[in-house]
Amino acid sequence: MSYTTQMDAARKGIITEELKSVAIYENMEVQELLNLVGEGKVVIPANKNHTSLKPYGIGKKLKTKINVNLGTSKDCLDTNIEMEKVMNAVNLGAEAIMDLSSFGDTQTFRRKLIYECPAMIGTVPIYDAVVYYDKPLKKITAKEWLDIVRMHAEDGVDFLTLHCGVNKHTAERFKKSNRLTNIVSRGGSIIFAWMELTGNENPFYEYYDEILDICAKHDVTISLGDACRPGSIADAGDVSQIEELVTLGELTTQAWERNVQVMIEGPGHMPLNQIKANMEIEETVCKGAPFYVLGPLVTDVAPGYDHITAAIGGAIAATYGASFLCYVTPAEHLRLPTVEDVKEGIIASKIAAHAADIAKGVKGATDWDNEISKARRDLDWEKMFDLAIDSEKARRYRTESKPENEDTCTMCGKMCAVRNINKILKGEDVDIMD
Ligand code: SF4
């Protein structure tokens, strides 16, 4: 029996190699996963042309996944550095890479990435169209926007962020809304500007059926972009955001009618107390399609530390329903991230994802914690380093600060509670001041 997409296969009861591999990784029954993929509650982004892919599932009951944004810009055009970030990201456990290149020979870099990288690859064709056509924005035609979508699908991209939800109606609402930070989505701002300049409807909305044809053919998962995601906590949960979300819910149903897999992008900046409700609204409006959050950043005041503001929000969001976290680096709002910025962003995001997996009871999530806690109890430093989310940093910190006694650290020395309790429980003397 043949199939187009993973969703189509699941609905026909076909167990694909990708589905089998995801079920093993998640320690889940194949039939349970098959049902979730068929219902759209789990996606397996796996373009048929991405032959080096290690497939992952994103969605309900699965481990929370993280995405790492990379790519060249006009000011930072070194593709070797970007490839170094890619391989570091994969080694640190990122399941997805989004290539957001906005300058240079983007197709060569994208193809190299797809050829070499086992992570899921995502792109935003809107940025690339502007680079590719290299002409005034208003001169790009609707057909040309769609041709870029087709090109990325043919190149092997596993998921595409498409800002289909900001149609004329949403745009009018936005213009009347008096938002503090307007539109902060790069793709959203470009397509909104194009709509204003040409007077035309958003081509990703108007020609959504053609986009579905392309995505069905290559099994590209659509990541429905949130052009109106709040860019400040003042704008969180406002009419523009919710209006667009309702449209995304409608587009989700249309995609599912064609067996196209869908994720929904989410905020953005959002106060802690709004995150749970926002996840629940998304779940209802978009019928359980996996939610992919860009943060959320829980305060606006921490440039230089936004990997932390995003990890706090990401942990809460994933606890209450988000399945996929887009990492944020300390460079957010400031510059293109360096290799070190990327590492810090990934670690923060992995912590958020794992913390949420513990909270929502993902199968086996606490095993890792229990293992490292045993090593900590036994003062088994090597094992702790091996199990640490950032082994290199944990090892370096201990090496840089040598204790007098090997079975303590320089924090408490011989007052080490762990060491002394171990000794007492073994019936040994405790030599604090000796
Ligand atoms: S010395 Fe203090 S901080 Fe260090 S391992 Fe022992 S109890 Fe923990």
Automatic annotation (TrEMBL):
Binding site for substrate: 69, 98, 127, 163, 185-187, 226-229, 265, 292
Pfam family, one: ThiC_Rad_SAM
Residues the record lists as binding Zn(2+): 269, 333
Protein EC: 4.1.99.17
GO terms for MF: lyase activity
Pathway(s) this gene product operates in, as recorded in its UniProt entry: Cofactor biosynthesis; thiamine diphosphate biosynthesis
NCBIfam families named among the record's database cross-references: PRK13352.1, thiC
Family label: Belongs to the ThiC family.
Protein name as it appears in the record: Phosphomethylpyrimidine synthase
Organism: Terrisporobacter mayombei
Gene: bzaF
